[in-house]
Design a protein that fits this description.
MutS, DNA mismatch repair protein, domain I, globular, 15 helices, about 400 residues, alpha+beta, DNA polymerase, domain 1, Dna Ligase, domain 1, 4 domains, about 20% strand, four-stranded antiparallel sheet
């Protein structure tokens, strides 16, 4: 393998991470609190969710009640969460990674992956890549960036590096980089991690030294994937949302805030009409409807609905939107409402076979179900068997499973 191809592989995936995104958003807007004991509460204002190192020195820990926390540290500053702010920042992070690659996946708010293959000409150096990503991150968030040949290694690199820095793990150094990490880093459930520790396996290096067949016998498919991740060979790809490009969005900024449900319904009625008149949505069907309402105090209400069958009629879409709003617990007076129509189909109608049969109908129903699940989960849950080496003496080498994509 040439040096150039190795360099391309060694930086195939990037991970942008901001640990404890909700806490980081609150601290970014209050720089005067840096260096003081601060805690973030849950939405019920009952328990501590995150704390600063200064608060931890006074014995304040995540999970304790606010009453106990204030008793341990009377000068503790308690901040309440603002879900609407966190959602907006999370979208900004996705857009920041989208500026360097079209293949972007948000694993969770504050953790975004990007497939870098094909971007080497735009960002020949890691410094240019870092500057391009960090330029889109809101100020004060102290982002961390990891780059590696595989997804899991990139995530660990991003989580272990310092704020405002980039850590690159070449593909040939991935196994050594991961070896000393605790097994709790692996993509395994807590019960499996506890079993590994009972067996005396505490690090990724010890886990990777086990035979793969023994790991899969004990922990199933998830164990095999974790074994590959521990060796720096995680094959999990970046999976962008399939509706990311095929969508239309309408947003209303309300000033003064909307206080009645009737006014909210009227605004959404107008937004739905404008969305369906956009050129991208005209004469097409919709598979996904996303509603979001932000309150003036930072509250957030969201509804994500994947339709059982594509809809193109405004009347039927409005019936679904109205039902969602009428049964919703909105976060008080609303300052921002957004409506997204996604998963737009390429066709505006269906042509059924003239010689319809039971087998044809079943195939069409299967294809429609798979399309629905791909919009819902981002990937096809079904696979098909294909012959690879039918002459091979090992049965597992004769055939392979490929994703079923109608």
């Amino acid at each position: 393998m040439s040096t150039a191809s190795l360099a391309v592989q060694s930086r195939a995936i990037a991970c942008l991470a901001i640990p404890s995104l909700a806490f980081a958003c609150e601290m970014a807007g209050r720089p005067a609190l840096a260096g003081s004991p601060v805690a973030l509460s849950d939405e019920a204002r009952a328990r501590v969710v995150e704390v600063t190192p200064e608060a931890r020195q006074h014995g304040v820990r995540a999970g304790m009640t606010l009453l106990d926390a204030v008793g341990l540290c009377p000068m503790l500053t308690v901040l309440g969460p603002r879900p609407a702010l966190v959602a907006g920042i999370a979208e900004a992070l996705v857009e920041a990674m989208g500026a360097v690659s079209p293949l972007v996946e948000e694993a969770e708010p504050g953790t975004v992956f990007a497939d870098l293959r094909g971007t080497e000409g735009l960002y020949p150096g890691l410094e240019q890549l870092r500057d391009a990503v960090f330029a889109g991150v809101p100020d004060g968030l102290r982002p961390q960036l990891g780059v590696a040949g595989h997804r899991f290694t990139a995530w660990v690199a991003a989580s272990r590096t310092g704020p405002g820095t980039l850590q690159h793990v070449p593909i040939e150094e991935a196994a050594a980089f991961l070896a000393p990490r605790a097994v709790s880093w692996l993509p395994l459930d807590p019960e499996a991690v506890a079993r590994l520790r009972l067996l005396g396996i505490a690090t990724c290096g010890q886990f990777a030294a086990l035979p793969r067949h023994a790991v899969e016998a004990q922990f199933g498919i998830a164990g095999g994937l974790a074994w590959l991740a521990a060796r720096g060979e995680d094959a999990t790809p970046v999976r962008p949302r399939p509706w990311e490009q095929e969508r239309v969005v309408e947003v209303v900024e309300a000033e003064p805030p909307i206080v009645s449900r009737e006014a909210t319904l009227h605004a959404l009625d107008q937004m739905l009409g404008r969305a369906l008149r956009q050129p991208r949505a005209m004469h097409r069907f919709v598979r996904l409807v996303r509603l979001r309402a932000e309150g003036e105090r930072g509250g957030l209400w969201e509804r994500h609905q994947v339709l059982r069958e594509p809809l193109g009629e405004r009347t039927r879409l409005w019936t679904m939107v109205r039902a969602a709003i009428e049964g919703a617990e909105l976060p008080g007076a609303l300052t921002r409402i957004s409506l997204e129509l996604g998963g737009l189909t390429a066709e505006s109608g269906r042509q059924h076979s003239l010689f319809d049969s039971e087998r044809t109908r079943r195939r069409e129903e299967l294809d429609e179900m798979v399309r629905h699940l791909k919009v819902r989960f981002g990937q096809s849950p079904l696979a098909r068997v294909v012959e690879v080496e039918p002459w091979h003496r090992l049965p597992e080498r004769r055939r392979a499973l490929l994703e079923y994509d109608p």
